[in-house]
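Open question from group meeting: does this chain pack into something compact, or does most of it stay loose? Before anyone orders reagents, we agreed to write out a predicted structure and look at it together. Recording both the input and the output here so the notebook holds the full record.
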Amino acid sequence: MNYAVRVDVTLRSGISDPAGATIERALPALGFGGVHRVRAGKLFFFEVDAPTPDAALDVARGLAERLLSNPVIEDATCALVEG
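Structure tokens returned:
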């Protein structure tokens, strides 16, 4: 069976986020005042051939831990995508 998966990768709490800080500093000049605590991350979509939804999520978690994120400073969450 084929399952669509979404993986969100974000910096762990307490880790400095220079990209988020840069975006936050630029927002007032673009007319977006009052926006605070901006955090940047990565988003991945892919499909996995697996016998069950849980097996597909296991593959996605392994991929997220070994390739898509740095587990020392980033958290990765995996979810199946409907449709």
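Observations to bring back to the group:
The first strand starts at residue 2 and ends at 11.
The first helix runs from residue 18 to 26.
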